[in-house]
Amino acid sequence: MERHFPGFTITRLTSNVDLEKSFGPVYARGLMRKGQSAYAVIGVNEKETQAAIDAALTFGILWMDVCRQKPHVSQNRRDMGHPGAMLVEGLHLFLPQGSSALVRERMANLNQAAAKWSLFELDERQDALIEMDCSDRGNVATRLVHATNEAAALERFGDSVARIRAILPNCEVVVFSPAEIAFRWRGLEFARARMGADAATFRSKQEIVFGVGPEERVLEDRNWAFFLELLTALRDTRHPYGPRQHPLFRMHAERWLESLVVADVSVVDERLQSQTLYSQVPAFSASDRAMIDVLTTTREGRLAVVELKADEDIHLPLQGLDYWARVEWHYARGEFPRFGYFPGRELATAAPLLFLVAPALHVHPATDTLLRYIAPEIEWEFVGIDERWREGVKVVFRKRSETCFRRRDAEARRILAS
Question: Which domain holds residue 373?
Fold first, then answer.
Protein backbone atom coordinates (compact mmCIF):
# COMPACT_ATOMS: atom_id res chain seq x y z
CA MET A 1 0.00 0.00 0.00
CA GLU A 2 2.82 2.42 0.79
CA ARG A 3 4.36 1.77 -2.63
CA HIS A 4 1.08 1.91 -4.52
CA PHE A 5 -0.32 5.01 -2.78
CA PRO A 6 2.59 7.44 -2.40
CA GLY A 7 1.93 10.31 -0.03
CA PHE A 8 -0.72 8.47 1.97
CA THR A 9 -0.23 7.69 5.65
CA ILE A 10 -1.61 4.34 6.77
CA THR A 11 -3.10 4.26 10.23
CA ARG A 12 -2.91 1.13 12.37
CA LEU A 13 -4.41 -1.89 10.63
CA THR A 14 -6.37 -4.26 12.79
CA SER A 15 -8.20 -7.57 12.55
CA ASN A 16 -9.56 -7.44 16.09
CA VAL A 17 -13.05 -8.77 16.68
CA ASP A 18 -15.74 -6.11 17.14
CA LEU A 19 -19.04 -7.94 17.49
CA GLU A 20 -20.99 -4.75 18.15
CA LYS A 21 -20.15 -3.58 14.62
CA SER A 22 -20.19 -7.11 13.08
CA PHE A 23 -16.43 -7.30 12.38
CA GLY A 24 -14.64 -10.62 12.76
CA PRO A 25 -10.97 -11.62 12.51
CA VAL A 26 -11.13 -12.55 8.81
CA TYR A 27 -10.70 -8.99 7.51
CA ALA A 28 -7.82 -6.57 8.10
CA ARG A 29 -9.15 -3.03 8.17
CA GLY A 30 -7.80 0.45 8.62
CA LEU A 31 -7.65 3.97 7.24
CA MET A 32 -5.25 5.68 4.85
CA ARG A 33 -4.95 9.46 4.78
CA LYS A 34 -3.36 12.18 2.67
CA GLY A 35 -4.00 15.66 3.99
CA GLN A 36 -7.72 16.01 4.52
CA SER A 37 -8.54 13.14 2.15
CA ALA A 38 -8.90 9.60 3.51
CA TYR A 39 -10.02 6.13 2.39
CA ALA A 40 -11.26 3.21 4.42
CA VAL A 41 -9.28 0.07 3.60
CA ILE A 42 -10.18 -3.57 4.14
CA GLY A 43 -8.56 -6.76 2.89
CA VAL A 44 -8.73 -10.54 3.05
CA ASN A 45 -5.96 -13.02 2.28
CA GLU A 46 -5.88 -15.99 -0.08
CA LYS A 47 -6.11 -18.57 2.72
CA GLU A 48 -9.72 -17.65 3.46
CA THR A 49 -12.70 -19.34 1.83
CA GLN A 50 -14.31 -17.97 -1.34
CA ALA A 51 -17.44 -17.27 0.70
CA ALA A 52 -15.44 -15.00 3.04
CA ILE A 53 -13.90 -13.25 0.03
CA ASP A 54 -17.30 -12.70 -1.60
CA ALA A 55 -18.61 -11.26 1.69
CA ALA A 56 -15.79 -8.71 1.93
CA LEU A 57 -17.77 -5.94 0.24
CA THR A 58 -20.50 -6.10 2.89
CA PHE A 59 -17.98 -5.56 5.67
CA GLY A 60 -16.06 -3.03 3.60
CA ILE A 61 -19.16 -0.83 3.29
CA LEU A 62 -19.83 -1.12 7.01
CA TRP A 63 -16.20 -0.30 7.86
CA MET A 64 -16.25 2.78 5.62
CA ASP A 65 -19.44 3.92 7.31
CA VAL A 66 -17.85 3.45 10.74
CA CYS A 67 -14.85 5.52 9.63
CA ARG A 68 -17.18 8.28 8.49
CA GLN A 69 -18.76 8.45 11.95
CA LYS A 70 -15.47 9.08 13.79
CA PRO A 71 -14.72 12.49 15.38
CA HIS A 72 -13.34 15.16 13.01
CA VAL A 73 -14.62 13.26 9.96
CA SER A 74 -16.66 15.51 7.67
CA GLN A 75 -19.52 14.28 5.52
CA ASN A 76 -18.69 16.68 2.65
CA ARG A 77 -15.98 19.12 1.58
CA ARG A 78 -18.00 22.19 2.59
CA ASP A 79 -17.67 21.20 6.25
CA MET A 80 -13.89 20.98 6.66
CA GLY A 81 -13.32 23.86 9.06
CA HIS A 82 -11.69 21.88 11.88
CA PRO A 83 -7.88 21.78 11.57
CA GLY A 84 -7.79 18.00 11.94
CA ALA A 85 -10.87 17.31 9.85
CA MET A 86 -10.77 14.76 7.07
CA LEU A 87 -13.15 13.44 4.46
CA VAL A 88 -13.45 9.67 4.02
CA GLU A 89 -13.98 9.67 0.28
CA GLY A 90 -14.47 5.97 -0.30
CA LEU A 91 -13.34 2.40 0.10
CA HIS A 92 -10.25 0.52 -1.08
CA LEU A 93 -10.98 -3.22 -1.04
CA PHE A 94 -8.13 -5.76 -1.40
CA LEU A 95 -8.84 -9.35 -2.46
CA PRO A 96 -6.64 -12.29 -3.53
CA GLN A 97 -5.69 -12.62 -7.17
CA GLY A 98 -8.36 -14.16 -9.40
CA SER A 99 -11.09 -14.08 -6.73
CA SER A 100 -12.87 -10.77 -7.23
CA ALA A 101 -15.41 -11.50 -10.01
CA LEU A 102 -18.49 -11.62 -7.79
CA VAL A 103 -17.44 -8.60 -5.70
CA ARG A 104 -16.69 -6.63 -8.87
CA GLU A 105 -20.22 -7.20 -10.15
CA ARG A 106 -21.74 -6.10 -6.85
CA MET A 107 -19.52 -3.04 -6.57
CA ALA A 108 -20.61 -1.89 -10.05
CA ASN A 109 -24.15 -1.48 -8.71
CA LEU A 110 -23.30 0.68 -5.71
CA ASN A 111 -24.02 4.39 -5.43
CA GLN A 112 -21.10 6.07 -7.20
CA ALA A 113 -22.06 9.48 -5.79
CA ALA A 114 -22.00 8.22 -2.18
CA ALA A 115 -18.39 7.01 -2.26
CA LYS A 116 -15.42 6.26 -4.47
CA TRP A 117 -15.23 2.48 -4.78
CA SER A 118 -11.89 0.85 -5.64
CA LEU A 119 -11.17 -2.86 -5.92
CA PHE A 120 -7.68 -4.35 -6.00
CA GLU A 121 -6.37 -7.87 -6.44
CA LEU A 122 -3.20 -8.76 -4.59
CA ASP A 123 -0.80 -11.43 -5.84
CA GLU A 124 0.82 -12.36 -2.55
CA ARG A 125 3.58 -14.43 -4.16
CA GLN A 126 4.67 -11.71 -6.61
CA ASP A 127 3.81 -8.88 -4.22
CA ALA A 128 1.85 -7.20 -7.03
CA LEU A 129 -1.27 -5.05 -6.70
CA ILE A 130 -3.67 -4.69 -9.66
CA GLU A 131 -6.67 -2.34 -9.72
CA MET A 132 -9.82 -3.91 -11.19
CA ASP A 133 -12.28 -2.05 -13.41
CA CYS A 134 -15.74 -2.01 -11.83
CA SER A 135 -17.23 0.63 -14.09
CA ASP A 136 -18.48 -1.65 -16.88
CA ARG A 137 -21.86 -2.99 -15.77
CA GLY A 138 -22.23 -4.94 -19.00
CA ASN A 139 -19.29 -7.17 -18.21
CA VAL A 140 -21.13 -9.68 -16.04
CA ALA A 141 -19.91 -13.27 -16.16
CA THR A 142 -23.30 -14.96 -15.78
CA ARG A 143 -25.37 -17.48 -17.69
CA LEU A 144 -28.99 -18.52 -17.52
CA VAL A 145 -30.37 -22.04 -17.79
CA HIS A 146 -33.30 -22.82 -20.06
CA ALA A 147 -36.73 -23.02 -18.44
CA THR A 148 -38.05 -26.55 -18.14
CA ASN A 149 -41.36 -27.54 -19.73
CA GLU A 150 -43.10 -28.24 -16.43
CA ALA A 151 -46.30 -29.59 -17.98
CA ALA A 152 -44.38 -32.23 -19.94
CA ALA A 153 -42.30 -33.20 -16.90
CA LEU A 154 -45.36 -33.57 -14.69
CA GLU A 155 -47.04 -35.71 -17.34
CA ARG A 156 -43.94 -37.91 -17.57
CA PHE A 157 -43.93 -38.42 -13.78
CA GLY A 158 -47.71 -38.61 -13.47
CA ASP A 159 -47.72 -42.03 -11.82
CA SER A 160 -45.15 -40.99 -9.20
CA VAL A 161 -47.03 -37.79 -8.44
CA ALA A 162 -50.31 -39.66 -8.07
CA ARG A 163 -48.69 -42.26 -5.83
CA ILE A 164 -47.32 -39.74 -3.34
CA ARG A 165 -50.23 -37.32 -3.43
CA ALA A 166 -52.54 -40.19 -2.56
CA ILE A 167 -50.79 -40.15 0.83
CA LEU A 168 -50.00 -36.43 1.17
CA PRO A 169 -52.51 -34.66 -1.09
CA ASN A 170 -51.28 -31.08 -0.69
CA CYS A 171 -47.55 -31.67 -1.03
CA GLU A 172 -45.60 -29.39 -3.37
CA VAL A 173 -44.20 -30.77 -6.61
CA VAL A 174 -41.15 -28.95 -7.95
CA VAL A 175 -39.77 -29.62 -11.44
CA PHE A 176 -35.97 -29.57 -11.58
CA SER A 177 -35.50 -30.87 -15.10
CA PRO A 178 -37.28 -33.07 -17.66
CA ALA A 179 -35.76 -36.05 -15.84
CA GLU A 180 -36.25 -35.12 -12.18
CA ILE A 181 -38.90 -33.67 -9.88
CA ALA A 182 -39.00 -33.14 -6.11
CA PHE A 183 -41.71 -33.47 -3.49
CA ARG A 184 -41.81 -31.02 -0.58
CA TRP A 185 -43.97 -30.49 2.45
CA ARG A 186 -44.06 -26.82 3.44
CA GLY A 187 -40.72 -26.30 1.77
CA LEU A 188 -38.96 -29.38 3.17
CA GLU A 189 -37.97 -31.86 0.48
CA PHE A 190 -38.73 -35.46 1.40
CA ALA A 191 -38.59 -37.32 -1.93
CA ARG A 192 -37.57 -37.12 -5.57
CA ALA A 193 -38.74 -38.93 -8.67
CA ARG A 194 -36.15 -39.32 -11.41
CA MET A 195 -35.38 -41.22 -14.56
CA GLY A 196 -32.79 -43.94 -14.14
CA ALA A 197 -31.51 -46.93 -16.05
CA ASP A 198 -32.52 -50.51 -15.33
CA ALA A 199 -29.33 -52.40 -14.44
CA ALA A 200 -30.48 -55.52 -16.29
CA THR A 201 -31.97 -54.07 -19.47
CA PHE A 202 -30.37 -50.58 -19.56
CA ARG A 203 -33.81 -49.22 -20.34
CA SER A 204 -34.98 -45.97 -18.82
CA LYS A 205 -37.22 -46.29 -15.79
CA GLN A 206 -38.64 -44.11 -13.04
CA GLU A 207 -37.55 -44.43 -9.45
CA ILE A 208 -38.48 -42.58 -6.27
CA VAL A 209 -35.83 -41.83 -3.65
CA PHE A 210 -36.80 -40.47 -0.25
CA GLY A 211 -35.26 -39.10 2.91
CA VAL A 212 -34.73 -35.82 4.74
CA GLY A 213 -31.32 -34.21 4.58
CA PRO A 214 -28.35 -36.24 3.32
CA GLU A 215 -30.10 -39.56 3.92
CA GLU A 216 -31.51 -41.01 0.71
CA ARG A 217 -32.87 -44.44 -0.19
CA VAL A 218 -34.78 -45.89 -3.12
CA LEU A 219 -38.46 -46.46 -2.37
CA GLU A 220 -39.22 -50.19 -2.45
CA ASP A 221 -41.84 -52.50 -1.03
CA ARG A 222 -39.60 -53.42 1.90
CA ASN A 223 -39.29 -49.82 3.10
CA TRP A 224 -42.76 -48.60 2.18
CA ALA A 225 -43.86 -48.64 5.84
CA PHE A 226 -40.88 -46.48 6.79
CA PHE A 227 -41.79 -44.03 4.02
CA LEU A 228 -45.35 -43.79 5.38
CA GLU A 229 -43.94 -43.07 8.86
CA LEU A 230 -41.85 -40.22 7.45
CA LEU A 231 -44.83 -38.63 5.71
CA THR A 232 -46.96 -38.99 8.83
CA ALA A 233 -44.25 -37.31 10.92
CA LEU A 234 -44.03 -34.46 8.41
CA ARG A 235 -47.77 -33.90 8.44
CA ASP A 236 -48.01 -34.03 12.25
CA THR A 237 -45.04 -31.77 13.06
CA ARG A 238 -44.45 -29.40 10.14
CA HIS A 239 -47.46 -27.11 10.42
CA PRO A 240 -47.87 -23.58 11.86
CA TYR A 241 -48.75 -24.82 15.35
CA GLY A 242 -46.40 -27.81 15.43
CA PRO A 243 -43.73 -28.54 18.06
CA ARG A 244 -41.19 -25.74 17.52
CA GLN A 245 -38.24 -27.69 18.88
CA HIS A 246 -38.80 -30.68 16.62
CA PRO A 247 -36.11 -31.01 13.89
CA LEU A 248 -38.72 -31.45 11.15
CA PHE A 249 -40.36 -28.19 12.21
CA ARG A 250 -37.11 -26.22 12.33
CA MET A 251 -35.43 -27.48 9.16
CA HIS A 252 -35.21 -25.19 6.10
CA ALA A 253 -37.32 -22.34 7.46
CA GLU A 254 -36.42 -20.24 4.42
CA ARG A 255 -37.88 -22.82 2.05
CA TRP A 256 -41.05 -22.90 4.15
CA LEU A 257 -41.36 -19.15 3.78
CA GLU A 258 -40.65 -19.47 0.05
CA SER A 259 -43.46 -22.01 -0.35
CA LEU A 260 -45.94 -19.53 1.15
CA VAL A 261 -44.76 -16.68 -1.07
CA VAL A 262 -44.83 -18.86 -4.18
CA ALA A 263 -48.42 -19.85 -3.40
CA ASP A 264 -49.42 -16.16 -3.38
CA VAL A 265 -46.66 -13.67 -4.16
CA SER A 266 -49.13 -10.77 -3.95
CA VAL A 267 -48.75 -10.93 -0.15
CA VAL A 268 -45.34 -9.26 -0.70
CA ASP A 269 -46.74 -6.59 -3.02
CA GLU A 270 -50.17 -6.32 -4.60
CA ARG A 271 -48.59 -5.63 -8.02
CA LEU A 272 -46.89 -9.04 -8.22
CA GLN A 273 -48.47 -11.93 -10.08
CA SER A 274 -48.43 -15.63 -9.25
CA GLN A 275 -49.72 -16.89 -12.61
CA THR A 276 -46.25 -17.11 -14.15
CA LEU A 277 -43.67 -17.44 -11.40
CA TYR A 278 -40.34 -19.22 -11.06
CA SER A 279 -38.70 -20.28 -7.81
CA GLN A 280 -35.08 -21.29 -7.22
CA VAL A 281 -33.96 -20.04 -10.65
CA PRO A 282 -30.30 -21.00 -11.25
CA ALA A 283 -28.15 -18.01 -12.25
CA PHE A 284 -24.48 -18.82 -12.66
CA SER A 285 -21.86 -16.12 -12.21
CA ALA A 286 -18.12 -16.75 -12.36
CA SER A 287 -17.56 -19.67 -9.96
CA ASP A 288 -20.75 -18.93 -8.03
CA ARG A 289 -23.99 -20.85 -8.56
CA ALA A 290 -26.78 -18.70 -7.21
CA MET A 291 -30.42 -19.63 -6.80
CA ILE A 292 -32.83 -16.73 -7.12
CA ASP A 293 -35.65 -17.36 -4.63
CA VAL A 294 -38.56 -16.01 -6.67
CA LEU A 295 -38.68 -14.43 -10.13
CA THR A 296 -42.01 -13.03 -11.29
CA THR A 297 -43.58 -9.97 -12.94
CA THR A 298 -45.93 -7.16 -12.04
CA ARG A 299 -49.32 -6.86 -13.68
CA GLU A 300 -47.71 -4.49 -16.21
CA GLY A 301 -45.09 -7.10 -17.11
CA ARG A 302 -42.16 -5.65 -15.19
CA LEU A 303 -39.70 -8.24 -13.88
CA ALA A 304 -39.39 -8.55 -10.11
CA VAL A 305 -36.75 -10.36 -8.05
CA VAL A 306 -37.89 -11.48 -4.58
CA GLU A 307 -35.14 -12.47 -2.13
CA LEU A 308 -36.26 -14.12 1.12
CA LYS A 309 -34.62 -14.63 4.50
CA ALA A 310 -36.31 -16.37 7.43
CA ASP A 311 -33.48 -15.51 9.84
CA GLU A 312 -31.18 -12.56 10.43
CA ASP A 313 -28.64 -12.23 7.61
CA ILE A 314 -26.20 -9.36 7.24
CA HIS A 315 -25.68 -10.17 3.55
CA LEU A 316 -29.34 -9.88 2.47
CA PRO A 317 -29.03 -6.43 0.77
CA LEU A 318 -25.95 -7.24 -1.32
CA GLN A 319 -27.09 -10.77 -2.09
CA GLY A 320 -30.37 -9.37 -3.38
CA LEU A 321 -28.43 -6.74 -5.33
CA ASP A 322 -26.31 -9.50 -6.87
CA TYR A 323 -29.37 -11.44 -8.03
CA TRP A 324 -31.00 -8.26 -9.34
CA ALA A 325 -27.87 -7.51 -11.42
CA ARG A 326 -27.93 -10.98 -12.99
CA VAL A 327 -31.63 -10.73 -13.85
CA GLU A 328 -31.16 -7.22 -15.28
CA TRP A 329 -28.21 -8.39 -17.40
CA HIS A 330 -30.12 -11.30 -18.94
CA TYR A 331 -33.27 -9.20 -19.35
CA ALA A 332 -31.37 -6.45 -21.22
CA ARG A 333 -30.20 -9.09 -23.72
CA GLY A 334 -33.66 -10.54 -24.26
CA GLU A 335 -32.69 -13.92 -22.85
CA PHE A 336 -35.74 -14.63 -20.69
CA PRO A 337 -38.18 -15.07 -23.62
CA ARG A 338 -35.48 -16.79 -25.67
CA PHE A 339 -34.78 -19.28 -22.87
CA GLY A 340 -38.46 -20.14 -22.38
CA TYR A 341 -39.37 -17.91 -19.43
CA PHE A 342 -42.73 -16.08 -19.27
CA PRO A 343 -44.13 -17.62 -22.48
CA GLY A 344 -46.71 -15.45 -24.19
CA ARG A 345 -46.00 -12.59 -21.81
CA GLU A 346 -44.70 -9.26 -23.06
CA LEU A 347 -42.15 -7.91 -20.59
CA ALA A 348 -42.08 -4.21 -19.79
CA THR A 349 -39.11 -2.08 -20.78
CA ALA A 350 -38.40 -0.79 -17.26
CA ALA A 351 -35.58 -2.36 -15.26
CA PRO A 352 -36.49 -5.14 -12.78
CA LEU A 353 -37.72 -4.42 -9.27
CA LEU A 354 -36.00 -5.84 -6.19
CA PHE A 355 -37.92 -7.00 -3.11
CA LEU A 356 -36.07 -8.01 0.05
CA VAL A 357 -38.25 -9.92 2.53
CA ALA A 358 -37.47 -10.87 6.14
CA PRO A 359 -39.31 -11.21 9.48
CA ALA A 360 -39.49 -7.79 11.13
CA LEU A 361 -37.65 -8.86 14.30
CA HIS A 362 -34.96 -10.73 12.34
CA VAL A 363 -33.61 -7.83 10.30
CA HIS A 364 -29.88 -7.33 10.82
CA PRO A 365 -29.03 -3.93 12.35
CA ALA A 366 -26.61 -3.22 9.48
CA THR A 367 -29.31 -3.54 6.81
CA ASP A 368 -30.24 0.15 6.69
CA THR A 369 -26.59 1.15 6.28
CA LEU A 370 -26.06 -1.25 3.39
CA LEU A 371 -29.27 -0.18 1.63
CA ARG A 372 -28.12 3.45 1.64
CA TYR A 373 -25.20 2.57 -0.65
CA ILE A 374 -27.15 0.76 -3.39
CA ALA A 375 -27.21 2.65 -6.69
CA PRO A 376 -30.14 5.11 -6.65
CA GLU A 377 -31.48 3.99 -10.04
CA ILE A 378 -32.24 0.52 -8.65
CA GLU A 379 -35.79 0.37 -7.30
CA TRP A 380 -35.87 -1.75 -4.16
CA GLU A 381 -38.36 -2.38 -1.40
CA PHE A 382 -37.56 -3.93 1.96
CA VAL A 383 -40.58 -5.80 3.27
CA GLY A 384 -40.76 -6.69 6.95
CA ILE A 385 -43.25 -9.45 7.71
CA ASP A 386 -44.89 -10.65 10.89
CA GLU A 387 -42.89 -13.13 12.96
CA ARG A 388 -45.79 -15.60 12.78
CA TRP A 389 -45.40 -15.93 9.02
CA ARG A 390 -45.98 -19.70 9.18
CA GLU A 391 -49.60 -18.90 9.97
CA GLY A 392 -49.76 -16.60 6.94
CA VAL A 393 -47.46 -13.93 5.50
CA LYS A 394 -48.49 -10.45 6.67
CA VAL A 395 -46.53 -7.27 5.95
CA VAL A 396 -45.86 -5.08 9.00
CA PHE A 397 -43.60 -2.43 7.45
CA ARG A 398 -42.04 -1.34 4.16
CA LYS A 399 -38.98 0.68 3.24
CA ARG A 400 -38.48 1.93 -0.29
CA SER A 401 -35.62 3.40 -2.24
CA GLU A 402 -36.08 7.05 -3.12
CA THR A 403 -36.53 6.18 -6.79
CA CYS A 404 -39.16 3.58 -5.95
CA PHE A 405 -40.94 6.01 -3.62
CA ARG A 406 -41.08 8.70 -6.31
CA ARG A 407 -42.44 6.23 -8.88
CA ARG A 408 -45.13 4.92 -6.50
CA ASP A 409 -46.09 8.48 -5.61
CA ALA A 410 -46.38 9.40 -9.30
CA GLU A 411 -48.54 6.31 -9.94
CA ALA A 412 -50.84 7.22 -7.05
CA ARG A 413 -51.19 10.79 -8.35
CA ARG A 414 -51.99 9.51 -11.84
CA ILE A 415 -54.68 7.17 -10.47
CA LEU A 416 -56.24 9.94 -8.40
CA ALA A 417 -56.19 12.32 -11.36
CA SER A 418 -57.98 9.79 -13.58
Answer: 253-417
